[in-house]
């Protein structure tokens, strides 16, 4: 049972990392668009 919990935690950690990188990418894209508009 401890293994099950550990497995679920690692899955959540992986999903959290994916979300973080997606958010990072989105904010980078937004910054690009904003700098284009400023010019």
UniProtKB/TrEMBL annotation:
Source taxon at top rank: Eukaryota
Can you name this protein? Uncharacterized protein
